[in-house]
Amino acid sequence: MDIRTNSHIQLIDITTSLNQEIADTGIKTGVCLVYTPHTTTAIIINENETGLREDILKLLNVIIPQAKYAHDRVDNNARSHLQAIVLGNNACVPIEGGRLALGTWQSVFFVELDGPRRRRLIVRIIETTRRT
Ligand code: ZN
Predict the structure, then answer these.
(1) Which has the least CB within 10 A, 36, 41, 85, 111?
(2) HSE of 43 in the Cβ direction (CA atoms, 13 Å)?
(3) Where are the domains of the chain?
(4) Which fold has domain 2-127?
């Protein structure tokens, strides 16, 4: 899945696109692996609410503040790498009834941390037997 981001830091809700990819396979029960192959992006699962989206970006600036980082000598984006490390680069979500088995308030987000750029997301949809 290709994603074009349009800000330096950005949360993109990819839940609908993932559910569409699952629907296209016809798989009803399984696992969906969502993986970003970039070192300055992340995958998170949480609520898509405007205030919370602002709070998540604010938190990233608090836990990884502006500072002099060693990697900035190379390409001046150490902060983006560090923020990506804190959030993680993948999510693995069960599939039930042909769609992601997310909680009522959960959405899957692709997180851009050094945009705007063209990004690639790897999605693997695996059929499994149903066990509770
Ligand atoms: Zn770098």
Answers:
(1) 85
(2) 22
(3) 2-127
(4) Jelly Rolls (2.60.120)
Alpha-carbon dihedral angle through residues 41, 93, 1, 98, given to the nearest 10 degrees:
-160
Provide the whole-model pTM.
0.95
Residue 74 CA to ligand 1 centre (angstroms): 7
Q: How far is the CA of 39 from the centre of ligand 1 (A)?
A: 8
CA of 55 to the centre of ligand 1 (A): 25
CA 54 to centroid of ligand 1, rounded, Å: 25
Could you tell me the distance, in angstroms and rounded to a whole number, from the CA of residue 118 to the centre of ligand 1? 16
Contact 83, 42 (CB under 8 A): yes
Residues 46-98 pLDDT 10s: 999 999 999 999 999 999 999 999 999 999 999 999 999 999 999 999 999 99
Rounded distance between C-alpha atoms, residue 126 and residue 33, angstroms: 8
